[in-house]
């Protein structure tokens, strides 16, 4: 039986086409009213192909924790509510969101420590920041450069609670992320094998639509000290994005995919309909075959309530992004098949005191693990030194 969808869900389908037109117009360099690109920002056309060598990949060297760094499981008790400025519905129940705190031990002992809460996108998970490949593990690389990170599986993903897939939405995920920020500031969360640190400075980082969550949280609650955004723009949506979204949307209209296991909650769907789509949509042609093979292990399903609320969330974001008043750094992949023509997006952050952008010339959508991600690690660490240092 098909699960009935609310008015906002039905409206999401109606605005999808309009969103594509609006986003493309906003992104187009030279379009009337469009901001120009930042100095040093580059772009390129997407690769025609995707990594073809994944099947022949050699085993990856597992990611090793840097010396002096701790990696501790953490959990946060949150309410699945939406108090953001973007309207969508959630069930209001209490859940547990789980993840990890990865940090130099000396940061956790500092008088005024700083941390970055990292939020994954719709079609990934906490793993996008913690890929088990040496040199491609974002949190390890940032910790080696002196910075603390908290990664989470969003509600409905991975190790976190898995409710009915229609129980939450994009705005509620932003509210939940803000609740996690508050708990990080207060030191009011669970830590396995340690004591919770209270952080004076909290930056929010987001990959893909996790950046949409971060932007929504920032403008709605004003409780973060900066935004580190990667693989995301609320403009430049491509035909590849539309094909994936509309296929997933139709499946959600029918109640979601079949249960993976008996007793699994209903209302979940793959954003990428095939494993090949997942690989090609995530990685550029120059990705390390070992990385591609590891990434393929993480092709997973997504909660329908979040998926179907994202078009409206993007429209809200385009209307509100100019109010974000904290420093912002953006990272794009030149060969991202899901977003192109994003040069003007940094210019939309008109209230931010400092907006910078970096483009990885050889990367696709999964910029945190793709070819050239070393530049992402270096620029993120340098940005944190300026805007969120631990003292």
UniProtKB/TrEMBL annotation:
Annotated ranges, domain AB hydrolase-1: 117-371
Signal sequence, renumbered to the chain: 1-27
Pfam families linked to this entry: Abhydrolase_6
Keywords of the record: Hydrolase, Signal
InterPro entries from the UniProt entry: AB_hydrolase_1, AB_hydrolase_fold
SUPFAM superfamilies for the chain: alpha/beta-Hydrolases (SSF53474)
Keyword check for Transit peptide: no
Coiled-coil zones: none
Gene Ontology molecular function: hydrolase activity
Region (Disordered): 32-60
Composition-biased stretches (Low complexity): 39-60
Name of this chain's protein: Alpha/beta fold hydrolase
